[in-house]
Amino acid sequence: MLSIQNLSVSYGAIAALHGISFEVGPGEIVTLIGSNGAGKTSTLRAISGLIKSRGKILYQGRDLANLPPHEIVAAGISHVPEGRMIFANLTVAENLAMGAYLQKDKGGIERDRQFVFGMFPRLAERRQQVAGTLSGGEQQMLAIGRALMSRPKFLMLDEPSLGIAPILVKTIFEKIVEINRQQGLAILLVEQNANLALEISRHGCVLETGQIILRDSSAALRENPKVRAAYLGGV
Amino acid sequence: MNRLTSALLAWPKAVLLACLLASLAFWLISDRINPYYMDVLTKIGINVILAVSLNLINGYTGQFSLGHAGFMAVGAYAAAAVTMFAGPKFLALAPAAWLLPATDGLFLGALLIGGLAAALAGILVGAPSLRLKGDYLAIVTLGFGEIIRVIFRNIDSLGGALGLNGIPPYTNIFWVLAVACICTYVVLAMVHSTYGRGFVAVRDDEVAAEAMGLNTTRYKIVAFVVGAFFAGMAGGLYGHYTLSIDPKGFDFMRSIEIVVMVILGGMGNTAGVIAAAVLLTLLPEVLRPFEKYRMIFYSLLLIILMLTRPQGLFTWKRTLKTAGRA
Questions:
Q1: Residues B324, A73: C-beta atoms closer than 8 Å
Q2: Whether the model pTM is above 0.95
Q3: Tens digit of each residue's pLDDT (9 = 90 or more) over A3-57
């Protein structure tokens, strides 16, 4: 579905990604793990066209590299940015409407909205509330809901557990799996909480200083002593 | 731009029409009102146009511009040039009985040309500064305002440093109120539409807006163009009211005055910004008896207001705090 080939990103003179390659199959959850500064967020930003990159981003056979972000959203790729980045001064309902920015059919938008509200009932309760007043977890739900409103076939999540109460992290990860199963949505997940991420994903890539040093099934990565030592906290 | 036009049409036009009729009715009775009050009211109207249009750029879209006086200057000079240089020929040729008196037709044309000239300047400033944010954008727009002023000072056919004198007195209270109503209507209609929520989205989080597929560049340009257009109209009204304009009247302090109105009213709160424009125009008048201490009082009041109500004097809900990034 998505095939990244030799993708490089640099900020000025500093290179963040040195030609990484990986693939995400249809309906698959793939996890990128790695420490701070390894290039995880840069990878997602390059895919969604927010930053310039070199290399190929093949999506359903089409090279999306360096297209403007709105064309990439239109192609069916949706990005839930790190730190949620909801529109704090708009209501929940308006935030969702912004997610459907490129959708034209009213009926379809309403159906998507009901799907999001079904997935996250909390958002339905608070639809008229200004989004900046939501809790961290609710904001994350809203960010995911908003991304779903663009009717993606491929969803990218950047650190969905960041700064969220542990009890909500579990809920949000359950929802991610549910969305993946119900909609057959392919998901690329970037997560510091590698344990959790490797539990729900099929494949994983380990990024280190801009390079992919390991690519394997998630089950195998969980058993890999090196990964365990570096990212899983342990024994 | 389809969404934009449909957004403008969706907003209740009846309200606008009523406001325009009220402006007309007010103009009809304006002879009986104390000329001093009319003078203050005209200034208020012009400041409302400036503040509401700047609020679209600074408040709703979050692009901090310090160049509003520059746009105003472009509009003032363009409109004055039309009525002074092309006006006599036009009036000689125009049929006597028209839909509206020939001078009003000429003035409307001049105002629109002033607005369009300023809008063009808006594109010129908006486009290259789109890569800049916050303070950097403020400095670029400040520079633009100064460049405009210096350019006009050096165009001899437009009066140079002396400015243009003998502009025909076409501005009356109807024109001022009418443009203020239209400006307010357009800004409100834009930001309260599905299309227009994008302005607030760009302000709240540009990266997220981009990731949602919004064309953030276009939003910023539209904000600059529409804001500059109305600043240009305000400039045209101003010129045909004071009857003489010179580059000094459009300096940096003028831009600051407008920015203060927007901040005091509450960024992105049109009603508040209108109230602040009224208040800040009235205040120096009310403080007139205090003579030389007037500006000290004025400045002190601004400081107190900012300390006690940083979110804007008239903002109660939907505050523009960058809330909830916890």
A1: no
A2: no
A3: 999 999 999 888 999 999 999 999 999 999 988 888 999 999 999 999 999 999 9
Length of chain A: 235
Distance CA B98, CA B288 (A): 44
Nearest to B213 among A69, A97, A134 (CB): A69
Of B68, B125, B119, B44, whose CA–CA distance to B252 is shortest? Answer: B68
Inter-chain residue contact A50 with B208, CB threshold 8 Å:
no
CB B228 within 8 A of CB B121: yes
Rg over CA atoms, chain A:
17
Measured between CB atoms, which of A85, A97, A101 is closest to B213? A101
- Give tens-digit pLDDT for A151-205: 999 999 999 988 888 888 888 999 999 999 988 899 999 988 888 899 999 999 9
Residues of B in contact with A133 (CB under 8 A): 323-324
Is domain A2-231 annotated with CATH 3.40.50.300? yes
Class of the B36-320 domain? mainly alpha
Nearest Cβ partner of A50 from B203, B207, B318?
B207
Return d(Cα A81, Cα B323) in angstroms, integer.
17
Asked whether the beta carbons of residue B213 and residue A132 sit closer than 8 angstroms, the reply is: no
b/e B311-324 (16+ beta carbons within 10 angstroms → b): ebbbbeebbbeeeb
Residue B3: phi and psi, rounded to 5, are -60, -35
Predicted confidence at residue A4, as pLDDT, reads 92
